[in-house]
Amino acid sequence: MNLEKASKPTRRGYSDRMLEYGSIDKDFTVFDADIGYSTYACLFGEAFPERYFNMGIAEMNMVSAAAGMANSGRTVVVSSYGVFLTMRAVEPVRSFICYPNLNVKLLSSHGGLTAAIDGVTHQATEDIAIMTTFPNMKVLCPSDPKAAEKLFDVSMQTPGPFFTRLMRDPLFDVYGDDEEFVLGGSKTLRKGSDITIAAYGDIVFQALEAAESLAAQGIDAEVLDLYSLKPYDKEAVLASVKKTGAMLVAENHQAKNGMGYEIAHLLLKHCPVPFDNAGLEDTFAESGDYPSIIHKYGLSAEKLAGRAAAVVQMKKEN
Questions:
Q1: pLDDT recorded at residue 2
Q2: Closest CA to 140 of 180, 185, 81
Q3: By the 8 A CB rule, do 100 and 140 touch?
Q4: Would 86 be classed as within a structural domain?
Q5: CB 151 within 8 A of CB 141
Q6: Overall average pLDDT of the 34-43 stretch
Q7: pLDDT number for residue 309
Q8: Residue 201: strand, helix, or coil
Q9: Alpha-carbon distance 157 to 21, whole Å?
Q10: CB neighbour list of residue 278: distance below 8 Å, 6 or more residues apart
Q11: Are 150 and 263 within one domain?
């Protein structure tokens, strides 16, 4: 698949659509933790200053205030880095937003190792495990700007709390204007018959490149973009795996308690096959450039191709 370089990161795509949506829905508000110029939430603030609240570097207070406003009937978008939303503010997200099932939408930027140069303090590599655990929370992770725009609409038009994981840097464009995205959906970006590779966010592109490398070795890989992580597309996963007979889940997250664990549980109950999941192996990463960091921690296309080939070999030996 030939991919075009993205002109903007998913955080900008999400915030561009949020700005447009401000003229459609004249009631929702945006709360920011003093990093609006990084998440691009500032664009909304410049256009609608009376509906934009910079709460300062106080994420717990920001989320608590957002819960209070949402409890009065207004939808609130909360903007910050993922590591702070899921660490500093985790108790009010759980108890004040998820428990009462309020309309608070979390704009979570710098997901996983996409915050590479900023180091461990800004790399949200446990966020999916935390947010998918909370009842009522829905979790999305777009891989390109167009998906981010469309999934913003999904979150705003679906009642209840949402966590949307966005990336720091522009990577590639894979979707056009005519693509449709639904809660609980997925996209099959490459059809194959030998192994299923499921990924989300930035690792979708590494999975696609790995599939091209595997093809040169005679291995036909199917690639799924799991843009909706909670709920996720169990039917598509099972249908693909029943066809290929093998699976690799690749995610920019701790391997423990990520989507790999979730899907392994699904397959163990319904369709046991040779399986592996690639992610951080119970370790923090480090500061560095993004391509080097994901390669070191086993998430580059080269590393994923090797893991996938090993799973296919397991299938042959069974």
A1: 74
A2: 185
A3: no
A4: yes
A5: no
A6: 96
A7: 98
A8: coil
A9: 11
A10: 248, 249, 250, 251, 255, 260, 298, 299, 303, 304, 307
A11: no
